[in-house]
Write a structure and sequence with these properties.
- The structure holds two protein chains of two kinds.
- Chain A is built from two helices and eight strands.
- Chain A is an alpha/beta fold.
- Chain A has one domain: NADH:ubiquinone oxidoreductase Nqo5 subunit (Beta Polymerase, domain 2, 2-Layer Sandwich).
- In chain A, strand 2 and strand 3 form a beta hairpin.
- Chain A is globular.
- The model of chain A has no long low-confidence stretch (mean pLDDT 85).
- Chain B folds into two domains: 74 residues, no CATH class; 279 residues, Cytochrome-c3 Hydrogenase, chain B (Orthogonal Bundle), CATH 1.10.645.10.
- By secondary structure, chain B is mainly α.
- Chain B has a three-stranded antiparallel β-sheet.
- The chains are: A alpha/beta, B mainly alpha.
- At the A-B interface, strand 4, strand 5 and helix 2 of A face helix 2, helix 4, strand 6, strand 7 and strand 8 of B.
Chain lengths: 160, 445
């Protein structure tokens, strides 16, 4: 499906349904995004993550080892470069990646959301706290091993 | 122990300490740097110099919200005030978080629309549209959607932009004390909602735009209804101009309030009227056209000063531009199917069920199991009334999205609030929140 078409900043650039996707090694996440910013991708429109626990066999270009988590940034250029999606593999054993807050201050809340929902830490983020869930919440809801909650219903007067 | 210290144990008890704004004496330089330095591209020492020496004795931290009438829902802002001046501001969100992205992972692509439509409840049709476009791209049928469905989507999307901006006119007026404006804005929005009710059956949360097309064709007499709204609105908008635009009190309240520059807006990822108010003509309808927006004529409205007044004026004029687009859609609305004739995606029509067993089974299978979507991932973005709304879907080849994420414009836009409020008056804070026009259902999802 997705095959390596070219390279950009030393990372494989593939085509996914007509959209450009750059697979960035985790160690170079901030460096490559910095280079992309200098290339004219001024806006980080979206930063999110996905948990591939139940879907490990996805298609990735050669040389990219699939890990459990993936952090995805959708970059946008208002100066005519179009869109570019950057993806990086984040292992379960060490769920962390460099923060791009210094490059794109708008990712402050998005990285907090990813931390809150997936438990992926962003090194260098100035205020990595939960944003949507309460502070004392246990677990990270959008992980695939976090069950959809059901509150036990209790009926008044029912024998227990 | 001072009165302020008394509040700390309470904060510890609710467990929300970490999300709140700390006292100045406890705030690290990092925290101040985060608020100004990173956006303005200043060094930490420059930020420290800019802050000056202010002690906690001179300031007060107050909560605005989560249930405050002018926060448009359950937005909670923590404001550090010195007298009436806002020194710092921190939005605390999550009060309306219902895990819609998690829910989306257990709803089929056909059911997904009912989920996303509830996110931005002031422009539900745009949410459905972006979700449908993303699903269609994954299915590989994005080029085969019937013309009538595409033009109907544009019609509904533009009507929705009008109703959303009219709601903004109403709430913006209400927030600033123009109560008559609130009534007028609501009255005009009602006209559009009545049209939606006739077409989709519901005033909000329509689930009308679905993967593969539109749920049903336009009802009889729809053209007259649209024309009636188009004939009625220009006079009403002219009334708004008399009531608000040229009025000295209104201008005093809004001009120069909540100023943001183009570079700051880009750095913060703000889109929509906020970005356009800084003078950058960025509108996805024109710059990255989807549907048939490349075939209609309209102007991208921009501001000059990046203040709350510009954002008001942009939305007011965007209603006029939407009306212009709707008139062109009326002229060009083609005849034909409203759903793709791909049996995999579209269920058989109701009449066929009565005469064909296969059609009945097929109908049942599509609505219970859903249709399978090939493996892949896609990000599609469109211009909602609030800015870029994007949908990122990962499919593992089954009939439910493996991961469904919505890039909500309000979520990103309210992160610009601390920047716009800095140094302003607390009375202007209301004007600034209002000018961002956040929908909290979309912020918290």
């Amino acid at each position: 499906m997705s095959t390596t078409v070219s390279e950009m900043h030393g990372c494989p650039l593939v085509d996914s349904l007509g959209q450009r996707v750059l697979h960035v090694p985790r160690g170079r996440w901030a460096a490559v995004l910095g280079a992309l910013r200098a290339d004219g991708f001024e806006v980080c429109a979206d930063l999110t993550a996905a948990d591939y626990l139940r879907h490990p066999g996805r298609t990735l270009p050669d040389g990219v080892v699939a890990e459990r988590f993936e952090v995805v940034a959708n970059l946008l250029s208002v100066s005519g470069q179009g869109r570019l999606r950057a993806r990086t593999q984040v292992p379960e054993a060490d769920p962390s990646v460099a923060s791009v807050f210094g490059l794109y201050p708008g990712t402050e809340a998005m990285e907090r959301e990813v931390w809150d929902m997936f438990g992926i830490a962003f090194d260098g983020h100035p205020d990595l706290t939960r944003i949507l869930m309460p502070e004392d919440w246990d677990g990270h809801p959008l992980r695939k091993d976090f069950a959809q909650g059901r509150i036990p219903v209790q009926f008044k007067g029912a024998p227990s | 122990m001072t009165a302020l210290d008394d509040r700390r144990p309470a904060a510890a008890h609710t467990g929300e300490g970490g999300q709140e704004m700390g006292f100045r004496r406890e705030s690290t330089p990092d925290e101040l740097f985060r608020e100004v330095g990173a956006v303005l591209r200043m060094s930490e020492s420059e930020v420290a110099a800019m802050q000056g020496e202010i002690s906690d004795d001179e300031t007060m931290i107050i909560n605005m919200g989560p249930s405050h009438p002018s926060t448009h829902g359950v937005l909670r802002l923590m404001l550090e005030l010195k007298g009436e001046t806002v020194l710092r501001c921190k939005p605390v969100i999550g009060y309306l978080h219902t895990g819609m992205e998690k829910t989306g992972e257990s709803l089929s692509y056909l059911q997904g629309g009912t989920n996303v439509t509830r996110m931005d409840y002031a422009s539900p049709l745009n949410n459905e549209l972006v979700f449908s476009l993303a699903t269609e791209k994954l299915l590989g049928i994005d080029g085969d959607i019937p013309e009538r469905a595409t033009w109907m989507r544009m019609l509904l999307s533009e009507m929705n932009r009008m109703s959303s901006h009219l709601l903004f006119m109403a709430t913006n007026g209400m927030d600033l004390g123009a109560v008559s404006m609130m009534l007028y804005g609501w009255r005009e929005r009602e006209e559009v909602l009545r049209f939606f009710q006739k077409v989709t059956g519901l005033r909000m949360n329509h689930n009308f735009i679905r993967p593969g097309g539109i749920a049903a064709d336009l009802p009889k007499g729809w053209r007259d209804d649209v024309l009636r709204i188009l004939d009625l609105l220009p006079d009403r908008l002219a009334e708004y101009d008399v009531l608000m635009t040229g009025q000295p009190i209104w201008r005093e309240r809004l001009q120069g309030v909540g100023v943001i520059t183009r570079d700051e807006a880009l750095a913060l990822g703000a889109t929509g009227p906020i970005l356009r108010s800084t003078g950058l003509p960025w509108d996805l309808r024109r710059d990255m056209p989807y549907l048939r927006y490349s075939e209609v004529e309209f102007d991208v409205v921009v501001g000059v000063h990046g203040d709350a007044y510009d954002r008001y004026a942009i939305r007011l004029n965007e209603i006029r531009e939407s009306m212009r687009i709707v008139r062109q859609i009326l002229d060009r609305m083609p005849a034909g199917d409203v759903r793709i004739q791909d049996k995999k995606v579209t269920p058989p029509p109701r009449a066929r069920i009565d005469e064909s067993m296969e059609a009945l089974i097929h109908h049942f299978k599509i609505f219970t199991e859903g249709f399978k979507v090939p493996e892949g991932e896609v990000y599609v973005a469109i211009e909602s009334p609030r800015g870029e709304i994007g949908c990122y879907i990962v499919s593992d080849g089954s009939s439910v999205p493996y991961r469904m994420h919505v890039r909500a414009p309000s979520f990103v836009n309210i992160q610009a609030l601390p920047h716009m409020m800095r140094g302003g008056l607390v009375a202007d804070a209301v004007a600034v929140i209002s000018s961002v026009d956040p929908v909290l259902g979309e912020v918290d999802r």
